[in-house]
Design brief:
The protein is α/β, with parallel strands linked by helices. The protein has helices at about 1-35, 65-75, 95-100, 135-140, 150-170, 185-195, 230, 240-245, 255-260, 265-270, 270-275, 310-325, 350-360, 375-385, 400-405, 425-430, 440-445, 465-480, 480-490, 500-515, and strands at about 45-50, 80-90, 105-110, 115-125, 130-135, 175-180, 200-205, 210-215, 235, 235-240, 250-255, 280-285, 335-340, 365-370, 390-395, 410-415, 435, 455-460. The protein is built from 20 helices and 18 strands.
């Protein structure tokens, strides 16, 4: 009886195996019979990239850095191979329309030096990008983004909060892309304390601002161990940008020319030797602009919209610009616009040296900006000397800048140093011909059209002669109406968007991950 049971069990097992084998063969045949494209393959996990920045458009922006971090992550997210996130402080000035859409994630406490600090995390999903906001009212509930006595401590807190955020959220990026000295402590903290597995990229937007502090606050304020001094000590003080260059996997700048210039003592602001030492991991990638924000066919800030095929709206915008600045409304006289911080490295001294000569020409000049009191007072004074020819608005006014790009004929940007510059690209987008000094990103984006096909007028040197010559060449072409119209149409058709730049970052990230 027992033998019969064992035999029956064996027979059942054999039949089950045969049946299973037959079913497997039939399933394989069914799969093989399907068209290749219907066979589902396991999805490849996206590369996780986190941008760490002190600002990002449209939430908080004070200049080019905010515009870049507002546009580049969105462009990368469109590739669908990246899981892109951005983290910035939750400043008081973040508009309510975005605050209402945020989701509170969690809060926690961590140590910064000897201080236990609160950290709240808010989250917002927009344009296929996840935005994280670090909430701490003590540090960020203020009127502006920067310029406070405790900026070193404020951004040390921000960087430490980013590092503490990873285990709290269970989120570990493959690449952390930091920007300027305010985020420099992220790669430094990782190298000296956390030792997480991500690759780090540090972008220098402006080498003039390096985050320099006394060595005595290494532990108390920054919460760094003594051995981290090897990374950050330079020139007898803490230099956060130097530390980030040393600790990052790759260092980028915002134009190819600027990457080369930074190795020169004239441009390197004291960091040229460190940059030369790390030149093997330096790359320069030209920034782009948002072609959605800066689009004369859709811009809500300007009086009349227009395209390269129909420039009639630009004529109306010019009349309105002259009206805003209290200048005679003459459609024939060329209008030169200056939109800039009024500081030395933006070439204000060159402009001051040559302004009388410029105003001897049949032109009008409109100026928008704030900066050093000496330059602000100069432009207030000279508009009284040349009424009806020059008017200065000493303020920061984003809406007015759009109307100036749209209404002016020429855009003057004689920077002594310009890492990338976006204004010259925006001017082209609006059909306003740039006049620039050949440096940094200005050299990479604007090429002189006097001797052939170009998109503006350029000069070298720092003397008044080069600038006035470029202005006069531009005015000369302006009076050749057909040629001038063709130049406006040509520069409006140039692609200064993020497609090309994003492709270069794509290659950069691949190289970093392989390295």
């Amino acid at each position: 009886m027992a033998d019969r049971k064992r035999k029956n069990k064996k027979d059942t097992s054999s039949k089950a195996k045969a049946s299973s084998k037959k079913a497997g063969e039939e399933a394989k045949e069914a799969v093989d019979a399907q068209p290749l494209e219907t066979v589902k393959k396991p999805k490849k996990e996206k590369t996780k990239i986190l941008f760490v920045s002190p600002e990002a458009q449209p939430f908080a922006v004070s200049g080019g850095l905010g515009e870049v971090v507002g546009s580049l992550p969105v462009s990368l997210a469109k590739k669908r191979k990246y899981d892109v996130s951005v983290v910035i402080p939750l400043y008081r000035g973040v508009p309510g329309e975005y605050r209402e859409k945020m989701t509170f994630v969690k809060y926690f406490y961590f140590l910064l030096g000897w201080r236990s600090q609160y950290c709240g995390i808010f989250k917002l999903r927009q344009n296929s990008v996840t935005y994280y906001f670090i909430d701490n009212e003590y540090y960020f509930d203020r009127d502006g983004l920067y310029g406070y006595f405790d900026d070193g401590e404020r951004f040390a807190y921000f960087c430490r909060a980013v590092m503490e955020m990873f285990p709290q959220l269970g989120y570990y990026p493959d690449i952390v892309h930091t920007n300027d000295w305010q985020t420099a402590l992220v790669p430094i903290y990782n190298m000296s304390i956390y030792h997480l597995g991500f690759k780090s990229i540090f972008t220098i937007h402006n080498v003039a601002y390096q985050g320099k502090y006394g060595l005595e606050i290494l532990g108390d304020v920054f919460g760094l161990p003594a051995e981290a001094g090897a990374f950050v000590e330079y020139g007898g003080c803490i230099n956060l940008m130097k530390g980030a260059i040393e600790c990052s996997s790759m260092v980028t700048t915002v134009s190819p020319s600027y990457a080369g210039e930074l190795q020169d003592p004239y441009f390197g602001e004291g960091l040229d030797s460190i940059i030369r030492k790390n030149s093997f991991k330096m790359r320069g990638i030209l920034n782009g602009i948002s072609t959605e924000v800066y689009d004369p066919s859709k811009d809500k800030e300007i009086t009349a919209k227009y395209t390269a095929d129909d420039l009639s709206g630009k004529v109306k915008d010019k009349a309105e610009l002259q009206n805003i600045f209290g200048l005679p409304q003459n459609p024939d006289i060329p209008v030169i616009a200056i939109i800039s911080r009024l500081v030395h490295h933006k070439g204000m001294q060159i402009i001051q040296n040559v302004m009388d000569q410029i105003l001897q020409e049949n032109v009008q000049v409109v100026i928008l900006g704030v900066g050093d009191p000496g330059y602000e007072n100069y432009f207030r004074w000279i508009q009284g000397i040349y009424p009806g020819k020059l008017c200065a608005n000493i303020s920061f006014n984003g809406g007015l800048s759009h109307r100036m790009y749209a209404g002016a004929d020429m855009f003057l940007m004689p920077s002594l140093s310009e890492p990338c510059g976006l204004a010259q690209m925006i001017a082209c987008r609006y059909g306003t011909v740039p006049i620039v000094r050949e440096t940094g990103g200005l050299r990479d984006s604007i090429h002189d059209c006097t001797m052939g096909e170009g998109n503006g007028f350029t000069f070298q040197g720092t003397d008044a002669g080069g600038l006035i010559d470029a202005v006069r060449r531009a005015i000369g072409l302006y009076w050749r109406k057909e040629d001038w119209e063709n130049l406006k149409k040509y520069i409006m058709g140039l692609d200064f968007g993020w497609t090309k730049s994003a492709a270069e970052y794509d290659r950069l990230y691949a190289d970093v991950l392989e390295g």
